[in-house]
Amino acid sequence: MKILKGFSKLSSEEKRRLAVSSCADPEAAKEELESFIHPDPDIQQILEGISENTVSNYPLPYNVAPNFIVNGKQYMVPMVIEESSVVAAASSAARFWAARGGFHAQVESKTKVGQLHFLFAGDHNRLNAAMTEIEAFLRNYVAPVTRNMERRGGGIRQLQLKERSDILGNYFQLLATFDTIDAMGANFINSCLEEFAEGLKAFFKDTEDFHADDFEPLMAILSNYNDKCLVHVSASCKLEELEEATALLSARDFARRFVMAVRIAESDVYRATTHNKGIMNGVDAVILATGNDFRAIEAAAHAYAARSGQYRSLSTATIENGIFTISLKMPMALGTTGGLTRLHPLASRSLEILENPTASELMRIAGAAGLANNFAAVRSLTTTGIQSGHMRMHLSNIILQLKTTPEETEKIKARFEDKKVSYQAVVSYLEKLRTP
Ligand code: MEV
User: Fold this and answer.
1) Which of 87, 262, 274, 328 to probe ligand 1 with, by most ligand atoms within 8 A of CB?
2) pLDDT band, very low/low/confident/very high, at 436 (cuts 50, 70, 90)
3) Nearest CA to 231 among 159, 278, 279?
4) For ligand 1, is residue 237 a contact (CB within 6 Å)?
5) If DSSP states are collapsed to H, E and C, what string results for 131-151?
6) Residues 6 or more apart from 182 whose CB is under 8 A from it?
7) Fold designation for 112-223
């Protein structure tokens, strides 16, 4: 093994050469990587600035799902995702619900969380008793960092001291909540937390009965468990209005089977994980399209799904007094300013397509996309089964791979209209077509 030193300092060209050295045809591989570099050097520079050791770009399809009605407003929702059935499912569910009043969504709160983790070897009672004094001192100490955010209406909301010697001897947390208005706010929160550490050190140094040496800051970092930054989305209709949901079942039977499917996901972890993955199909695609951090949303979603100690479905479905309702509640810490949202040209374009939403509006749209995908997935699962739709998409992928002529494509599509799709079956049929 040869350890590469100073790799990040090499030119893109050199990095590419090294990156493809294990490929069967390094020259062809390098050319392929180069072919994905953006022709506009300014855009390429932005992309390279976002990350590190960039040797190419990795394009994913940029799709749109029309007919999303959220709180009475119509949206064309940009979705970046490689799974074609997701966009088809979102579009079909959006259209279905558009005819039934669309999605209703509220943001319950936009409060975000951060923690300063520290050890305190002094008198714990004295520390707990001084918290009011500490809070006033820290708010003043971090004022240069919070001033701008406060001007925009945001800032630090709450500061709490948590003694957690149950986890580690002398371990405390300063648990802070923030409102970052339309920004995702990670940098703002982390800067405040790091300033809190400096501020606490100064406080202990200058306050009677405290010693700076008793204080050992350990970590200052936001928490992705934004269990207060929640969006709640729902869609309802009369049972009879579900008639068009499927040709296979009566509206009543469809609703009954749908509710049972969700009930299973509320209690069984194997089903709940897949059920929630279906929700995240829609959510992540919107998050990626708008330049937000999908890993953060994923982490929060799954932690929230397990908040009772049992991992459960994030969505619910009910039939009450003849009304069928689906709903979804989940953390959704999104931003529409700062970070990648305005830096990445397509993220910025997505926000423009969405008519430049506020963070709350984007939370509602992403939630609606999640619920739409969940509805479409459970509808397929409880009626036709998921494979018929997936296989149609799979067939398109196989056709693409086999580089068929337009005429062959038509024949293959007609042939597999009502047959099981497999790569081998399509290849055999194509061979037959091509045999004179
Ligand atoms: C596939 O990407 C998503 C589903 O598995 C979701 C679900 O099972 O609910 C279809």
Assistant:
1) 274
2) confident
3) 279
4) no
5) HHHHHHHHHHHCHHHHHHHHH
6) 335, 336, 337, 358, 359
7) Alpha-Beta Plaits (3.30.70)
Q: What is the residue type of 385? A: G
State both tokens at 6: 């100073």
Q: Which CATH class is domain 62-109+227-384?
A: alpha beta
Query: How far does residue 73's CA lie from ligand 1's centre (Å)?
Result: 27
356-406 pLDDT per residue, tens:
999 999 999 999 999 999 999 999 999 988 877 777 778 888 999 999 999
CA atoms within 13 A on the CB side of 217: 18
The residue type found at 416 is F
**Count of CB atoms situated within 10 Å of the CB of 369:** 33
Active-site residue list: 83, 277, 293, 390
What is the pTM (predicted TM-score) of this model?
0.91
- Would you list the domain boundaries of the chain? 7-50, 62-109+227-384, 112-223, 390-434
* Per-residue pLDDT at 252: 95
Phi, psi angles (nearest 5°) of residue 130: -90, 5
- Residue 71: name the closest of 292, 352, 358, 293 by CA: 358
Question: Which amino acid belongs to residue 14?
Answer: E
Ligand 1 pocket test target in 84, 262, 270, 281 with most atoms within 8 Å of CB: 281
**What pLDDT sits at residue 392?**
76
